[in-house]
Amino acid sequence: MNTLESVEAILDKIPCPICLNSRCEANLSCDLPKAPCDVHALCGRCGYRFVVTNNTRTMEELWPQIQQEVQKSQCPECGDDQFSMEFLCDVKSEDCYFLVRCSKKGHYSRVSLNSIQYLFG
Predict the structure, then answer these.
(1) CA torsion 23→88→56→33, rounded to 10°?
(2) CATH classification for the domain delimited by 59-120, as one of 1.10.3470, 2.40.50, 2.20.25, 2.60.40
(3) pLDDT-derived band of residue 1, with 50, 70 and 90 as boundaries?
(4) Based on the number of CB atoms within 10 Å of its own CB, is 25 exposed (0-12), middle (13-18) or buried (19 or more)?
(5) Which H or E run includes 97?
(6) What is the DSSP letter of 71?
(7) Where in the sequence of the chain do the CATH 2.20.25 domains occur?
C-alpha cells in the first residue's frame, strides 16, 4: 500500500489539530522536484491543512495522554480532581470537544482546545 492509501485508510481516526474534527480529505503535495511527496490532510470543517506522517497519532493513541492531562486539573466549581471524560461532536455544527464530569458533584465542563493543543504537535 502506498503512503496516500495508508493515510486514507486511517484518516477518519486522525483529529484535526485545530477543531478536533476528523472529516478530512487527503492529498499528495509534490512541491519540489526530486523530493519526496508529502501527504496533507485538509479538514472539511475548519479548512486547516496539515501534514500527515508516520508519527501522526490517531484519537485512540491520543486519548490516554489527553485524559492524563485533564486529570492534572480540578473542577472549576468544587475543586474535585477526579473526572470522567467523553469526546463529543455536535452533528449540526460539527463542533467536537472533550466534556469532563467531576465525580464528587457531577459538574460538567468543556475542555479548552488551547489546554491540550500541544498534544497534537
Answers:
(1) 20
(2) 2.20.25
(3) very low
(4) exposed
(5) strand 96-102
(6) H
(7) 3-52, 59-120
How would you class 87 by CB atoms within 10 Å of its CB: exposed for 0-12, middle for 13-18, buried for 19 or more?
A: middle
Residue 48, C-alpha cell as written in the block: 486547516
Instruction: Show the cell assigned to 1.
Output: 500500500
Helix (H, G, I), strand (E, B) or coil at 5: helix
Report pLDDT digits (tens) over 65-86.
Answer: 888 877 787 887 888 888 888 8
* Amino acid at residue number 62: L
Give residues with Cβ within 8 angstroms of 71, minimum separation 6.
Answer: 81, 83
Q: Scanning the structure block, which residue is given the C-alpha cell 506522517?
A: 53
